[in-house]
Amino acid sequence: MRWLLTLTHDEIAIVERYYRRHKDELDAYESRIRAHRAQQIRLQRLRFPEREGNANQRLAELRRLLRQRRGEISDEGARR
After folding, report:
1. Structure letter (DSSP) for residue 13
2. Which of the ends of the chain has fewer CB neighbours closer than 10 A, N or C?
3. Per DSSP, what are the bridge partners of residue 79?
């Protein structure tokens, strides 16, 4: 079991003071992180577009592609 750390009131006050003193810098850093993450998600979706169909259809298509890659079926769809 993991333990959750708890901060004292004094420790929380220290963190709050630090944030207030560095708010602009920390907010700008967070904005850069969010922009980078959004860009990475966009690139991932371009590289791997979402397949059409419901979940079962997509799963069946992925299984078919896996079998094809493993050589279990030819490009025409017939079993070897």
Report:
1. H
2. N
3. 73
pLDDT in tens, 1-25: 677 788 999 999 999 999 999 999 9
Q: Please, which pLDDT band fits residue 76 given cuts at 50, 70 and 90?
A: low
Angle between the 23-47 and 9-21 helix axes, to the nearest 10 degrees?
A: 80
Tell me the one-letter amino acid at 27.
Answer: D
Whether this model's pTM surpasses 0.70: no
Two tokens, residue 44:
């991932």
Q: Where are the alpha helices (DSSP H) in the chain?
A: 9-21, 23-47, 55-70
Tell me 8's DSSP state: -
Give the tokens for residue 55. Answer: 């979940």
